[in-house]
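Subject: sequence -> structure tokens, single chain

Hey, anyone have a minute? Need the predicted structure for the following. Not urgent.
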Amino acid sequence: MRSHHAGKVAAVLAALAAFAWVGVAALREMEARRPPLTLTVLSGAADAQAAVQQMAQQPRVLIYHTHTWEAYEMTETDTYTPTETWRTKDDAHNMVRVGEELAGELRERGFFVVHDTTAFEPPNLSDAYTRSLEMLEERLDAGEQYDYLFDVHRDAYSGLYNGSNCAQQGGLQMAYVMMLVGKGTGATGSGFDERPDWPQNLELAQQITDEMNRLVTGLSRDVKVKTGRFNQHVSTGALLIEVGNNKNTLEEALAACPVIAQAIANVHAQRTQENEPEKSG
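Reply:
Had a minute. Here:
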């Protein structure tokens, strides 16, 4: 009996050994067929330098809101606590929300965007432009550089607006947009000591307006040129953008932002191409 039991054990061990040998052989064959593993070690410093170079090549935009608390018509699904009629300090419902939407759309199109959400209205709305100018000067004096500086507002509804208060495309209602350029001459003509290079700003505003209307017929009203300065003397490329008016809803204002961003991107690409030196040969 013992020899018979020992024979069974020996047979099992032999089978296990054979199975193990087959398994090892199969693994060796799989290893031989596997492509070589290549490891790429990236230098942290090189990555950082590449990121800095890429950021330096991006067009740079500063978005801010001198009249930060401007807001839109409330709806059943979009309510806020007003500071006064059509104004709120709630950033989810005032111009900060519109600026954030525009900033996101521009970033998706390759722009480097700084969105300054400072509330410049308090303590007095009448001197909000003085405080937003201080912010601009602090940033520029610190060495920040921007291709475009957009002060994003909403307009006041006018009885001169006839018919619809929105442009429509594909069933989507978008608040009308308007670019505003300041000459800095003042109401009496004496004006400011430092004035904007308003013809250059006007050229940019007109290009963006034309491009918006090419993308969505009638989205942008005519460029408005006024005697005020609107802090546009700090740099060329400084514009005031009115996104809708107080009779629009926030939803309608947000719907216009992708088109505004695309128009800015298209105009920037065109201006960049025009300014590139001609390639020899």
